[in-house]
Amino acid sequence: MRVKLRSSFIIALSFLSLSACSIKQKIDPIEVTSATEVCIVENKDVREGFLKEFEKVLQQKQIKYRLIQELDAQNGCEWTATYTANWAWDLALYMVYAEIKVFYQGRLDGEAIYDARMGGANMNKFIDAEPKIRELVEQLIQQKQANNQFRVIHSFTEHQVAI
């Protein structure tokens, strides 16, 4: 009986220690077209490399963007993005938290969050930040394909004519 109790305790303790070492990622994507312009609110408190990688992905996706210093209705931004990231030291410097939020007409439309603050002994927390930032932006910003929209309209028109 005592052995069973002890092994159950060890299993429960192992489960708790593993769950305490979790890394979480959540992405709620947005859809934009090639005509979309995103205003990025520059965060001077975040390492410069974060913004550079964010911009690089937008350029590759051919999404127009501009940097703004603060949220202001006078900026004329329909789409606005904010970002933050933190690094921590644990044997090495690593990105422990990253968050990108995208707003459409002032309302939250999508977000990407990477959170390794509860990473503890999980060695997967030691990531290269640039590929992770790229992954977050690529998964967050989905592009509507103009060709697909044309095909839908075109097939709908054909269907109407056939009736």
Automatic annotation (TrEMBL):
Keywords attached to this entry: Lipoprotein, Signal
Keyword Lipoprotein belongs to the record: yes
Organism: Shewanella holmiensis
Signal peptide, first to last residue: 1-20
Name under which the protein is recorded: Sbal_3080 family lipoprotein
